[in-house]
Each structure stands twice: as C-alpha cells, then as structure tokens.
Design goal:
- This protein is an alpha/beta fold and 203 residues long.
- The chain has five helices and 13 strands.
- Strand 5 and strand 6 form a beta hairpin.
- The mean pLDDT is 97.
Length: 203
Amino acid sequence: MIGLIDYNMGNLRSVVNAFETLGVTIKIVKNPDEVETFDKIILPGVGAFKDAMECLQKDGMSDAVKAFASSKKPLLGICLGMQLLFESSTEFGETKGLGLIEGEIVKFDRTRFSQKLKVPHMGWNELFIRQNSPLFANMPESFYLYFVHSFHAQCDSQYIIGETMYGYDFPSAVQKDNVFGFQPHPEKSHANGLKILKNFVEL
C-alpha cells in the first residue's frame, strides 16, 4: 500500500492520476499517525521550501516522515518533496529540511550559465543516469522528464543517481539507501515518468 503525503503543498491529483494509469491505487495521507502503516510513501511538493517545512512541522508530519525513512521502507520525494529531504535550503533565508540526505538546496547560479538561460528551469530536459538504482530498471542511459524549479540540490556525488544540464550539471535524481528523490515530475513526464513510478511500485 502506497501513501501520498498531503501537507497542503502539492498537486496531489496529478500524482494520483499517474498511478491510476498504472492500475495502482494510492491513498492520500493527512494524519501523521497513519504514515507508518504504509509500505511506501511519496512526498510531493510545489512552492517554497520554508512554507513547506512549516506545513510539515505544524501537525507532526515531518517527524512521521523521518520515522518512516528510518524504518527502511521506500520513500520517494518529488520536486519540492525531493528538496525537503535535504538538510537545508537557502530559499528565503536559511531553513532546515528533513535531513534525510546530506546536502543543501541552492538557487541556480546564473553566473555559471554559458548562455542566456531563464530561471525557473521549466520544460523538458534530459536526465543522465550516473549510478544504478532500482528506479532506473529497464530504462536507457538518458531520457527526458518534465522540470519546473528555480532551486536545486547540492550534495556529495555518492547520493547523485541522475544529473541534468541546465547551464551546468545539477543533481536531478538522488538516493540514500531507501530514500529516493526526483527534481523533475515523473507524474507529468508521460512514458518515462510512468516507468520510474512503476519501478517504485515494484520495489
């Protein structure tokens, strides 16, 4: 059974629709006490890091998510949900994250862009696999996914399973043991994204 965390910071319907396309029913979870009852959970997110952490902490959901991660059951963060997995973010000042993966979230550095690129990074871009992961089972070495974000992860290479070029290479997929994160939106990325979600279901 897969739970989808509802903390008022994500478009849950698109995630639910993607799993329904796969023939999989997932349950929206609002009560932190229920989180531990699931086999897998997904942490979505759209918006600002600071607001998201405040929402997660307000009713104890942040502690429930961290406890779930420590149980070694699979946890998938998507977009802002991936960013929340890290220790901190510089968005609107320094804000502590869930601390499940060492590293921080930083804004795109336009001074490193070799061409005139817009921020936010929006649209289809290529993810290049850097390390084997069960979420990449039966997928090519690179493929396109849909992105919408102005900040990205900055972390040790041991956690980077996928990278994307936008002005410079940044981590677009990460993994630490049972904790996975994707900066792009698999649920909005058609066949490639559905394959990632299917692999998550089959963990």
